[in-house]
Specification:
Blueprint (H helix, E strand, L loop, with lengths): L2 H7 L4 E5 L3 H12 L3 E5 L11 E4 L2 E4 L13 H8 L9 E2 L5 E5 L2 E5 L3 H11 L4 H15 L22 H18 L3 H6 L4 H9 L7 H12 L5 E2 L3 H14 L3 E3 L2 E9 L2 E9 L5 E5 L2 E4 L17 H9 L2 E2 L1 E8 L9 E12 L2 E10 L12 E8 L3 H9 L3 H19 L7 E7 L1 H8 L7 E2 L20 E3 L10 H19 L14
Parallel strand pairs: 1-2, 1-13, 2-9, 6-16, 13-21
Antiparallel strand pairs: 3-4, 5-8, 6-7, 10-11, 11-12, 14-20, 15-18, 15-19, 16-17, 17-18
Helix pairs in contact: 2-10, 2-15, 4-5, 5-9, 6-9
The structure holds flavin-adenine dinucleotide.
The site of flavin-adenine dinucleotide has 37 residues, from helix 2, strand 10 and helix 15.
């Protein structure tokens, strides 16, 4: 059935969602299950946005999903992932140990998901640091108790029992917040200096995200220690495909290769979206009773003829700092399955690009995963951190873009061959995605797919509505800093709850929609 035939037949309130990333798909599924007639318009020829991977010469390069908050069965977030079909009982979740490894001259240093194992390992390695090791692990354990919740907004009617904070959860949250407050004030560099063991001190500095306080590291490790943060087998593409299937099975319409050009606003209300197909460039108007913007909120202004007014948007524009990276992916004709799944590589000669010098980088090794590399071969990926958007834009303008990528490739290949001599001469393909790649692919602001925060205390969500236009809602990674997949689904859930509240519709909650066995 064509989109126009469907609209004539269907009297249910029509919702147009701009963007078919994880957040747009989640909003579509929630809204469709609540009885709305949903159409998602996605500019790209496949859905998923930043949750994606791509093929090069027989290798598959993972460009999104590395670890997933809510992968642990039974957690509230897991219920949300199941509700939107991203996870089900058939999906194998991998929780490899150690989580990360670093080979220092003094020995191999690891962080395990299992905190007791980490504590035992670090104490054996550096008994002189026993006091700080115990405190570090105690912090992680407290963080592991931090509950995740699905809270319902005030005034919305939901099926089943309303989600509220239990007193037990509040106590655990307060305890975790106390630890966070204490450690968020300590810079990673200063904390590293407190360790006497030279390898351990270097390791603490080398773990990615050094601009974040030590509290954020404890929080990440706490989430892993609680059994969460696993890797769903197959990564991004099957994760998104399951969501697309769920959306279409619920009766939703997904228009791929279709860009939203303008949200039409009449008398202060969003009433339609003007879209253009990438293939025949035809412009059509999709009428809507409500519009959800699930593309990057930092670029939403371009979709409107009038300025968007809200204090929170002004604050977002003024304070948002982009998280982005250069993603280097290598296809190697060599079996590296004996190397750890995640390891920190040190560039003995710091890797230079843009105005940056990178000394340490986290490497993901897919040698044991046949979804990514043929048997006997290996995919390695690494993210070179930092906002280098302006550098790449300039390199593009002055014709140096390819040469700058080539320079990164040579430095990475040299450093890898120094550390893992057997790969010398075996690298068959090197793919480099810059912030310009992400901008072109998803139209993300400065090619960034998350928001930089230095302390978990800054992780406050923005509201999904604005002051001067009604029937308009926002969701996506930017709405819940720092972003990532959990904020993508949770912000979508909140946006649809506002939609339901405004439309006088009951929100169909996760309880009533568990997947069939
Ligand atoms: C290398 C990398 C590793 C990551 N690892 C993790 C991880 O391990 N765990 C984690 O939680 N997060 C991770 N993330 C972050 C995560 O991928 C993103 O935060 C998340 O995908 C954001 O989803 P979203 O739907 O909010 O936005 P997006 O993915 O940006 O989706 C927005 C969609 O809108 C579309 N769009 C934009 N403008 C228009 C328009 N005008 N018309 C139609 N469509 C439009 C885009 O094409 C896109 O599909 C990673 C990201 C990257 C890049």
């Amino acid at each position: 059935m064509s989109h126009s035939e469907k609209s004539e037949e269907n009297a249910r309130p029509k919702v147009i969602i701009i963007g078919g990333g994880v957040s747009g798909l989640s909003a579509g599924i929630y809204a469709q299950k609540c009885g709305f007639d949903v159409t998602i318009v996605e500019g790209h020829r496949i859905a998923g946005g930043n949750c994606t991977s791509w093929k090069r010469k027989g290798y598959q390069f993972e460009g999104g999903l590395h670890w997933l908050g809510g992968s642990k069965a039974g957690t509230p977030l897991n219920k949300a992932w199941r509700h939107v079909g991203a996870l089900d009982d058939s999906v194998v979740i991998h929780t490899d140990e150690p989580f990360v490894e670093y080979r220092h001259e003094t020995g191999t240093i690891c962080l395990f998901r299992d905190t007791a194992k980490t504590e035992q390992h670090l104490l054996a390695l550096a008994p002189q640091d026993s006091k700080i090791i115990r405190l570090f692990c105690r912090g992680i354990k407290t963080m592991s108790l931090l509950p995740t919740t699905l809270t319902d907004i005030k005034g919305v009617k939901v099926t089943g029992k309303k989600e509220t904070e239990s007193p037990g959860n509040l106590i655990k949250t307060l305890r975790a917040l106390r630890v966070l407050l204490k450690y968020s004030k300590i810079a990673r560099e200063d904390y590293a200096k407190r360790f006497i063991h030279p390898g351990l001190s270097e390791f603490i500095r080398a773990i990615p995200g050094e601009q974040q306080g030590i509290g954020m590291l404890m929080m990440t490790m706490g989430s892993l220690a609680g059994g969460d943060g696993g890797f769903p087998e197959g990564g991004s593409v099957p994760f998104v495909q399951r969501m697309v299937r769920t959306f279409e099975d619920c009766g939703g319409t997904l228009l791929l290769s279709t860009r939203a050009l303008k949200v039409v606003v009449e008398q202060g209300r969003a009433v339609a979206v003007e879209v253009q197909g990438n293939v025949n460039a035809e412009t059509i108007l999709l009428k809507a009773d409500a519009v959800i913007v699930a593309s990057d909120t930092m670029k939403a202004e371009a979709l409107f003829s009038e300025p968007l007014k809200s204090a929170w948007l002004t604050k977002m524009r003024a304070t948002t700092s982009p998280t982005s990276a250069v993603l280097v992916s290598l296809g190697i004709n060599c079996d590296l399955s004996k190397q750890p799944k995640g390891f920190i590589m040190r560039f003995r000669q710091p890797l230079r690009y843009a105005d940056k010098q990178v000394e340490y980088v986290l490497v993901s090794n897919y040698a044991k995963d046949s979804h990514y590399a043929p048997v006997g071969k290996t995919v390695l990926t690494m993210q070179l951190p930092g906002d280098t958007y302006d550098f790449w834009a300039q390199a593009k303008a002055n014709g140096r873009y390819a040469a700058e990528k080539q320079s990164i490739q040579e430095q990475v290949e040299r450093a890898l061959a120094e550390q893992i001599p057997e790969i010398d001469g075996c690298i068959e393909v090197c793919d480099i995605a810059t912030p310009l790649t992400y901008e072109r692919y998803c139209d993300n602001w400065r090619g960034s797919w998350m928001t930089e925060i230095t302390s978990a205390l800054e992780a406050r969500p923005y509201p999904p509505t604005i002051d001067n236009i009604s029937a308009l809602y926002f969701c996506g990674h930017r709405i819940m800093p720092p972003g990532g997949y959990p904020p993508a689904v949770l912000s979508a859930r909140t946006a649809v709850q506002h939609l339901c509240k405004d439309a006088g519709t009951i929100f169909v909650s996760e309880e009533r929609h568990q997947p069939k066995d």
